[in-house]
Design brief:
127 residues; mainly alpha; 5 helices; 65% helix; 0% strand
Length: 127
């Protein structure tokens, strides 16, 4: 019978991700509405996290503005058009949700999600 090789040492631990240990939490908060203010105001030394916070805050403000417009347009539509308006607004909110999820996934990968008008405005803001 052959002899078993001696047990090898466990592999070394993976190197820590760049930045602080709470980076993923802060990236999540950056795209979670008003909570984007937390990383924006507390992590001033991380330029990438600042960018994501501004972009997420802009996305939240844009979403609120979209909600107001859709609400008031739907409020003043005549009866039969409201039957078309409801499925349309559902598709719009589904697109907003998909955009939010894509932004989060890209942020966790170290990439940036560019929203056409929102990102341009958000990058010009200095806080």
């Amino acid at each position: 019978m052959s002899e078993l090789p001696p047990p090898s040492a466990p592999p070394p631990p993976a190197p820590p991700a760049s930045g602080s240990s709470d980076r993923n939490v802060m990236l999540f908060l950056a795209y979670f509405g008003i909570f984007a203010l937390i990383p924006l105001l507390t992590k001033k030394d991380d330029a990438d996290l600042q960018w994501h916070s501004k972009n997420g805050l802009g996305y939240a403000v844009g979403t609120i503005m979209l909600w107001v417009v859709l609400f008031f347009v739907g409020l003043f539509l005549p009866g039969p058009l409201k039957l078309i308006w409801f499925p349309f607004t559902c598709l719009v909110w589904l697109a907003v949700l998909v955009g939010w999820i894509l932004a989060l996934v890209k942020a966790f990968k170290g990439e940036r999600m560019i929203f056409p008008v929102i990102t341009d405005i958000a990058t010009k803001i200095n806080i």
